[in-house]
Design brief:
Strand content: 5-15%
Structural class: alpha+beta
CATH topology of the largest domain: Fic-like fold
CATH class of the largest domain: Mainly Alpha
CATH architecture of the largest domain: Orthogonal Bundle
Number of strands: 10
Distance between the termini: 56 Å
Radius of gyration: 25 Å
Shape: globular
Number of domains: 2
Number of helices: 14
Largest sheet: 6 strands, antiparallel
Length: 443
């Protein structure tokens, strides 16, 4: 257990440097957050590079040619990390409700994935966020054996027992934080309580425990994926010490980075430059490759196959809020069309008109005024969507947010992707109303 002893020794060194200068600590935590988002998602198959992850988190720039699902995974994971950092400052205890809230932030919205029935037939499986699994999620190993996690029926009791175990352990005066965090990670994975996102949730919870106890987060690097899973498999075989020691090894690296940052030293790692070089190499390849650029044909096809379905879904969902308000204004316009009501647009906009459209920019305004309740007459909610057809891609942007959704001219927004974007707009509107209600209740 040499690595565990070293980690505890470095923790003492870090404590002696505290309090850390706020700006230095912000730089350190930004590096950890970027690395954590990139590696934890990449371990699960996300295709965004480190540079693309950084551009998305810091500047809201989405990667061209990458699945929308991958962008949503990164943004959801980053929101979950930021939430956890706030919870640590507030000293919030670890509970089942905490874990379900975390899972909801991580995956954002429920969705469907391809699955296989027990008799080998393809099917669809609904992934429900923030709720324990309702179907078995056992896996087949390389040898063809079935590795069994907790059944849906067992899961609530096992999660209750896990939190009881944790809350008893953390009160012990001689508890080893590294043992506690690593063992919680493993016990959580053995239950596999959710239909999806269990690995990412386990790593966030492990780091929540470590950070609550004054340690930096552990970053499991994607290039070390084989060793990470091998250590978990050793634990499955009864040797959990190997997994705990593996976590300690990675914790040593995080502690060394945090100590260097606290001292004002360079915290960039050798492979950080490799990541940036790889990003530059990729960008050069993209420039060399043949791309579908904007033309009358490509923009018309993109509009018909992706943008129009998005607009129809968006207007349908946003119109559900109209019953809550006394007044609702709507306008959608482009270079050669303008509709002042949703009904006019739906009734008069014909698919055969698409070939005659000039597609540069489409704007959609929704203004909801005066909630139908005494005391809420001054409430107004504005939603402004801009759809821009530029030379390389089409961008969907909400001006109350920094996120831009990008669609290439040779791609199509799937129904799932459209639903994700629209649901994010619906969620923002719901949260706005809830905030106004909370403000009134607190007066």
């Amino acid at each position: 257990m040499e690595d565990i002893a070293k980690a505890l020794e470095l923790k003492n060194e870090l404590d002696n440097l505290r309090p850390i200068d706020k700006e230095k600590e912000a730089i350190i935590m930004q590096k950890f957050r970027l690395d954590w988002n990139y590696h934890s998602n990449h371990l699960e198959g996300n295709t965004l590079t480190y540079g693309e992850t950084k551009a998305l988190i810091l500047f809201g720039i989405t990667a061209q040619g990458k699945p929308l699902k991958d962008t949503l995974e990164i943004t959801g994971h980053n929101e979950a990390i930021n939430w956890v950092l706030v919870m640590i400052k507030g000293e919030r205890p670890l509970t089942e409700n905490f874990i379900r809230e975390l899972h909801t932030l991580l995956l954002k919205e429920s969705y469907e994935v391809d699955a296989i029935t027990p008799d080998g037939k393809p099917t669809k499986k609904k992934i429900t966020v923030g709720s324990y699994k309702i179907t078995a999620n056992h896996v087949k190993t390389k040898t063809g054996e079935i590795f069994y996690f907790a059944t849906p029926e067992e899961t609530p009791a096992k999660m209750y027992d896990l939190l009881n175990w944790f809350n008893q352990k953390i009160k012990e005066t001689d508890v080893n934080p590294i043992f506690l965090a690593a063992e919680f990670h493993y016990k959580f994975i053995r239950i596999h309580p959710f239909d999806d996102g269990n690995g990412r949730t386990a790593r966030i919870l492990m780091n929540f425990i470590l950070m609550q106890l004054g340690f930096p987060p552990v970053i499991i690097k994607t290039e070390d994926k084989a060793n990470y899973f091998a250590a978990l498999q050793m634990a499955d075989a009864g040797n959990i010490e190997t997994f705990i020691n593996y976590i300690a090894q990675n914790l040593v690296r995080s502690l060394e980075i945090m100590i260097a940052g606290a001292k004002g030293e360079n915290i960039e790692e050798d492979d950080d430059l490799d990541k940036e070089i790889a990003l530059l190499e990729q960008k050069l390849k993209i420039i060399e490759s043949t791309k579908v650029l904007k033309s009358h044909k490509s923009s018309a096809e993109l509009f018909q196959n992706s943008i129009l379905p998005f607009i129809l879904t968006y207007t349908e969902m946003m119109s559900k809020f109209e019953k809550l308000y006394s007044s609702c204004e709507f306008e959608i316009f482009g270079d050669n069309f303008n509709y002042l009501t949703k009904e006019d647009f739906l009734q008069n906009f014909k698919a055969d008109e698409i070939d005659n459209l000039v597609l540069n920019k489409i704007k959609i305004y929704y203004i909801f005024s005066m909630l139908k309740q005494t005391g809420f007459e001054e409430v107004k909610y504005e939603n402004y969507i801009s759809i821009i057809f530029d030379a390389n891609s089409c961008k969907i942007k909400n001006f109350s947010d920094t996120t831009t959704w990008e669609v290439l001219y040779d791609s199509i927004l799937t129904k799932t992707e459209i639903d994700k974007i629209v649901k994010s707009e619906v969620k923002r509107h719901k949260e706005f109303i809830e905030q106004k209600i909370a403000e009134k209740e607190n007066k």
